[in-house]
Automatic annotation (TrEMBL):
Domain of life: Bacteria
Keywords: Methyltransferase, Transferase
UniProt key word Methyltransferase: yes
Protein name: Methyltransferase type 11
Organism: Streptomyces chattanoogensis
Protein's UniProt keywords contain Aminoacyl-tRNA synthetase: no
GO terms assigned for molecular function: S-adenosylmethionine-dependent methyltransferase activity
Residue intervals of the Methyltransferase type domain: 42-135
Gene3D superfamilies assigned: Vaccinia Virus protein VP39
CDD domains: AdoMet_MTases
């Protein structure tokens, strides 16, 4: 049985947070995340569908999986405005409603911070990817600075409660590697909207190759 994901308060606030972040630079991050993507794509935890308009024309189809009902309704609306075909499906990262080895690209953006079972989600991403496929990721992560990391640890319980389960302290690049993906490219940066750092500033954007069948 797949557990429901319901964060009504967060789902109301997130579109506003996202609009603020996009007005201050995250649009560029979304473009960087999706540059060169082609073929059949699964987007995991698509939220409001903020990525949809940035998919290149070479994309044949996006299957956008989103468990939260209010966010999914917004994603369905965004799908109608996208330049490439987008199908929004209910479901969770830990059990994707997608066939084995059927997609060229799996996209996660600002979502591995929130998913309860990160390893399970990455195993699922590996399951649905073709052997030649790739994982594209854009995530906020734990700080490499010891002092900033201690602040993230202190704030994490409150942040999780207000942020729909979002963690500040995850080492997501490491989690991707530990799940058997080969990280091919990664850019670390601090995202500082309006020049101001915040606890979720440390970020990564990158590409990883799925584990070979024997290594899964
Ligand atoms: C911060 S939002 C990011 C949304 C979107 N990916 C973006 O880039 O704006 C986190 C998203 O993760 C989704 N989520 C939470 N738990 C999930 C799970 N187990 N499987 C899939 N998505 C999940 C939430 O519903 C929400 O849409």
């Amino acid at each position: 049985m797949v557990k429901a994901v319901s964060h009504p308060l967060f789902a109301r606030v997130y579109p506003k947070i996202n609009a603020y972040m996009e007005a201050h630079g995250s649009i560029e991050h979304r473009r960087e995340l999706l540059a060169g993507v082609r073929g059949r794509v699964v987007e995991i935890g698509a939220g409001t569908g903020a990525n949809f308009r940035h998919y290149p024309a070479e994309v044949e189809q996006v299957i956008a999986v989103e468990p939260e009902p209010r966010l999914r309704a917004l994603a369905e609306r965004a799908a109608g405005d996208a330049a490439v075909p987008v199908e929004v499906r209910p479901g969770r990262a830990e059990r994707l409603p997608v066939e084995d080895g059927s997609v060229d690209v799996a996209v996660v953006s600002l979502v591995l911070c929130t998913i309860e079972d990160v390893r399970g989600a990455l195993t699922e991403a590996a399951r649905v990817l073709r052997p030649t496929g790739e994982l594209r990721f854009y995530e906020h992560v734990r700080s490499q600075n010891a002092r900033a990391f201690r602040w993230q640890q202190l704030l994490n319980p409150l942040w999780r409660r207000l942020g729909g389960g979002c963690h500040l302290t995850r080492d997501t690049e490491r989690a991707i590697a530990e799940a058997g993906f080969a990280v091919e490219k990664v850019r670390h940066f601090d995202f500082r909207p309006e020049g101001r750092p915040n606890p979720a500033s440390p970020s990564i954007i990158g590409i990883a190759r799925p584990p070979t069948a024997g290594a899964r």
